[in-house]
Specification:
This protein is an alpha/beta fold. It contains nine helices and six strands, in the order βαααααβαβααβαββ. The mean pLDDT is about 95. One of its GO terms (molecular function) is 5'-nucleotidase activity.
């Protein structure tokens, strides 16, 4: 059966999360007179953030715990003394500011224009529901997508099969006529494969991945070779 539906992840796949997050921290630190070297903070924050997102996907921490602990642990790691009240303030400002930055990965508009002519496009994201649509509006890509599926709207997170089955049902699609494109092997690729979808992995860091059950690409423009 030929492909009719394409499901994209958003963060780290189309929307350049790392670049936009870095800019957000620069802004909120300046606004709150936090005088630390941003590079040093980000170096410890990023692995901590990835760790807490994994715990969040596995339902081991709440959204509130994720937002607080990733900042608390990062400040502790660089021995910067900060009050809980200010951490809470930063956590709120981060979420408020982040979705208004617009950086997308190279080739995003080109590939979405190309695909939109041939397929129905959708989003499946674990990102916080209140900001994902704002991200897409700010970066001018919202109009490309028919269905926007957030894990919060389903009640579980990728790679839980309920998310993918809900997305397929919402889009009136089947695993056989759909493909998933995303950056996370665990959340996007294995999650999709487990419910019968084909998958394309966005390997923008060009990591050495020795698997043959999915296709890997190092730039969005490579999608044209397969679709």
């Amino acid at each position: 059966m030929k492909i009719e539906h394409i499901f994209f992840d958003l963060d780290h796949t189309l929307w350049d999360f790392e670049k936009n997050s870095d800019l957000t921290f620069q802004k909120i630190f300046l606004n709150n007179n936090i005088e630390i070297k941003i590079e040093g903070f980000l170096e410890v924050y990023k692995p901590i953030n990835r760790k807490y997102w994994k715990l969040y996907r596995e339902e081991k921490v709440t959204k509130k715990e994720l937002r607080y602990q990733r900042l608390k642990k990062a400040f502790d790691a660089i021995n910067y003394t900060i009050s809980d009240d200010l951490i809470d303030k930063l956590a709120i400002e981060y979420i408020d500011c982040l979705p208004h930055f617009k950086n997308l990965f190279d080739g995003t508009f080109e590939i979405l224009e190309y695909l939109k002519e041939k397929y129905k496009l959708h989003i499946i994201t674990n990102g916080f529901e209140e900001i994902q649509t704002i991200k897409m509006k700010s970066s001018n890509i919202l109009h490309y997508f028919d269905e926007i599926i957030t894990s919060e709207s389903v009640g579980v997170k990728k790679p839980n099969p309920k998310v993918f089955n809900y997305a397929l049902q919402s889009a009136n699609a089947t695993p056989q006529n759909s493909i998933m494109i995303g950056d996370s092997i665990e959340a996007d690729i294995e999650g999709a494969l487990n419910v019968g979808l084909t998958a394309i992995h966005c390997n923008f860091e060009n990591e050495d991945i020795k698997r043959n059950d999915f296709t890997s690409i190092t730039s969005l423009k490579e999608i044209k070779q397969y679709l």
